[in-house]
Amino acid sequence: MIQLLFLVLFAEGAVALLLMVKVGPLRELAMRVVDQVKTGKGPATVKTLACTLSVIFLSSVTSILKIQNRGLKLGTVSPMDQVLWRTHLLEASLIGYTLFLAFVIDRLHHYLRKLITLRKTSSTSREEVEKLQMENRSLREKEEKSSNETKKLQQEIAKLNESMKKLKMESEDNEKKASTAEAHVNALQKQSEELLLEYDRLLEDNQILQSQLLQRLS
């Protein structure tokens, strides 16, 4: 029994050391071993062993107390009782250290799992932050491009407004010129009509004069 406890205690100490100190891939191996122990029927088996060891621990402690009480009553302790007392003390010590190391291994495994999950979440959060930063940069670049495009469009609109003003001025000048030309044409038409009337009148006078002249000659 004591040799088996020494073997278990040595194995637990090795596992606890590997969990506390990272030695290459040995920590991952120890984590996998503890994971396998905690999955399936492992927890029930561990609880059964812990209860059994606790019962043996309590029986050893009671045996130690009985031997001490017997020695106090008799005043002396027999050699057999001394051997039994040392044996029970060693057994109780080994069981206590075994249970304590099992508890330490359980807690180390639990907190290491939490640390691994936190690292994974932190890495994913960092990736998300980097993605958001990239998206923010792209949005800023798009905003800068759009602002530059809007400035160019505003400049083009200003140029078009200036050209429209110039065209309006030219069209107004052309309208004025057209109106003055139309008035001049109307005046010329009136003059031509008056000249035609004067010409018709002169023709009539010429005809009258010719007829009078013919009458005098005859």
Structural class category: mainly alpha
Mean pLDDT across all residues, rounded? 84
Bulk shape: rod-shaped
Strand content: under 5%
Number of helices: 4
Q: Please compute the radius of gyration using only Cα atoms.
A: 60 Å
- Uncertain residue segments: none
Instruction: Report how far the terminal alpha carbons are from each other.
Output: 184 Å
Summarize it.
The chain has about 220 residues and is mainly alpha-helical.
What would you note in describing this structure?
With 218 residues, the chain is mainly alpha-helical. Helices cover 94% and strands 0% of the residues. It has four helices and no strands. Helix 1 packs across helix 2 (26-38), helix 1 packs parallel to helix 4 (79-217) and helix 3 packs antiparallel against helix 4 (79-217). The model has no long low-confidence stretch (mean pLDDT 84).
